[in-house]
Structures are given as C-alpha cells and as structure tokens.
Amino acid sequence: MHIVLYQPEIPPNTGNVARLCAAMRVPLHLIEPLGFRLEDRYLKRAGLDYWPHVQVSVWPDFASYLAEAGRGKRLVASSSRKGTSLQRFAFSPDDALLLGPETRGLPDEVLDHTPHRVRIPISDKVRSLNLSTAAGILLVQAMSATGLLDAVDALNTADSMDTLDTIGTLDSMEARDARNARFAPATPGVSDASLLAGAQPGCSAREAFAALSAARKSHGRT
Questions:
Q1: DSSP at 202
Q2: The pLDDT of residue 3 is above 90
Q3: Is the pTM of this model over 0.90?
Q4: Are 1 and 26 in contact (CB under 8 A)?
C-alpha cells in the first residue's frame, strides 16, 4: 500500500504524513511540484527524527509515478464530498491512496486515471479535513480492512523480541549485567540484575522477560 501526495503545498502537513508512514511502514510518494523544499525546517520539524525511517520517493510528475512505483497499483482517490464512504469501500492491499493539494484538491486530469473514489463522512458544517488528518484516517481504515494493520502489529512484536534477543541468554554474570543495563531498576535497593539471577541459564529472551516480570511482582514492583 502507498500514500501518494499530489503536489502538496504545506510542509507541516507532509511532515506529519511522513511520520504516519514511518509508523505504519508504508512508502510515501510525493508528486512535484511541491509547495516547499525538502530541506524546509517546518517539514523536518513535523516529521521529527523519523525521516530516516520513511521510505519516501519524489516524482517529477504523476505520469512518472504511474510508470514506475505506481505500476500495478490501484489508485484510490480521496475526495471531500464524492465517492464511497470509506467504511463501505472495499480496499485492497495494493491500493495507492491518493490525496490532492490542500487548497485545490485533485484535478480532473488526475481523477481521470481512476474510477475509485473514497470520502470520509464529515459534518456539512465542515468543508474538509486537514490533509494529514485525512491521510491518517484513510490509511488506518484501509490497512485495518485488508489485514495490513495486523501485519504491522506482528512486525512490531517481532522487532521488539529481536531487541530483547540482542541481550542474549543469561548464562553468565556479564549477560545479566547487560540485561540490567537494558532494564533499569524502578526503585532503589532491588536491581533487575539480582531479580534475574534466579532465571534458568540458557533460557530464551521471552522466558527471561517472563521471569523478570514475575520477580518484580513478588517484590511489589511493576
């Protein structure tokens, strides 16, 4: 699944969408011309320090995106008032969610590339949603409907366990000290290293974490 921003104009909005894409592990595609430079400090500030984790591509025009990264993707165009309500739309894992510039929306020449339109139901008292807000709502709904959100959850869990596995087994005092450095004691007096001393040598990271949790509870710690 892709997020595609067609000629975005406001740097903080794109920065927020970039942060969203980093969180959801989704590629971000920007179609030029942009209303800002990628070095813009407001763009970087909105994306915080997550930019290294964003798979971002910039394309000189929409045709270039379609010919390369967009090939084989189903374009799903976001509209403020037209199209199928997102809760009723049949999303696909290979969808490219396309959002237009903040002040103009998607032009007809872009909309002509796809019959698939989706809208977020909102009150008629509100003209439209902020670009980054709309992108977040669309993406999470699409990923939830297609099972991709479960995949992200599984990847996050696997990454967490990989981090624990780097601590190693508890065969030696050195390994316990490394474990203690990772889990600083919540209260003085009883360190995690001493709590983990009772763990079975050679146990897995998952077993060590379970042992630590049980030991913390027995000492009145969480």
A1: T
A2: yes
A3: no
A4: yes
